[in-house]
Amino acid sequence: MFIQIEPQSDVPIYTQVKNGIMEGIVRGELVPGDILPSVRSLAGDLGVNMHTVNKSYHELESKGVIRIVPKSGAVICPPSEGEIPPSRLDQISEELRPIVVESLVIGMSEKEIQELVASIMLKVKGE
After folding, report:
1. Phi/psi-derived region of residue 107, left when phi > 0, alpha when psi is between -120 and 50, beta in every other case
2. Listed residue (56, 23, 19) closest to 37, CA to CA
């Protein structure tokens, strides 16, 4: 698993770690049942504080991406079976809304926004 940390980025480091793990899952580098490195180990590898990695892991757990098992580590969860709960869709919608609004304000068309999202999906998947 390769996570690139950009210390000068406006994106908090814990978010970069969280996003890096999720991108690894999307690309198939991490699969359900895989055990993530310990907080201490990943923090050392990335050169960041242990609390930063711990926060990333807990955010991933709250989203249902991983399960933290005391004394065993953090395990990648399988994707949800069936429909995604409406509450989770609402949460994602609320997180995307400001970005979509900003895109419209700067003059992007609906088609340009859709094309941008499609290109991001391809990059994330490594295609």
Report:
1. left
2. 56
Rounded to an integer, what distance in angstroms lies between the CA atom of residue 46 and that of residue 17?
9
Q: What's this model's pTM, rounded to 2 decimal places?
A: 0.85
> In angstroms, rounded to a whole number, what is the distance separating the alpha carbons of residues 71 and 35?
12
Q: How far apart are CA 20 and CA 110, in angstroms?
A: 28
pLDDT digits (tens, 9 = 90+) for 45-66: 999 999 999 999 999 999 889 9
- Per-residue three-class SS string for 29-42: CCCCCCECCCHHHH
Secondary structure (DSSP) of the chain: ------TTSSS-HHHHHHHHHHHHHHTTSS-TTPBPPPHHHHHHHHT--HHHHHHHHHHHHHTTSEEEETTTEEEEPPPPSSSPPHHHHHHHHHHHHHHHHHHHHTT--HHHHHHHHHHHHHHHHT-
Question: Between vectors from CA 88 to CA 84 and to CA 91, what angle results, nearest 5°?
Answer: 150
